[in-house]
Amino acid sequence: MNSTVYLDNAATSFPKPRSVIREVNACISRYCGNAGRSSHPLAMESAKKIYECRELISDFFGIGAPERVIFSQNTTYALNLFIKGVLRKGDHVIISDLEHNSVWRPICKLARDGVIEYDVFPSMCGDERANSTRITAGLAGLVKKNTRLVVCTHASNICSYSLPIERIGAFCRRHNILFAVDAAQSAGHLPLDMGKMKIDALCAPGHKGLYGIQGVGFLALSDNIKPDTLVEGGNGLSSLECEMSESFPERYEAGTLPTPSIAGLTEGIKVVKELGIEKIAEHEAALFRYTAERLSEIPEISVHLPQYEGAVLLFSHKNIASERLTAMLGDRGICLRGGFHCSALGHKTLGTLETGAVRAGFGIFNSSADADRLISAVKEIKELF
Question: 202 and 245 share a domain?
Answer without folding.
Answer: yes
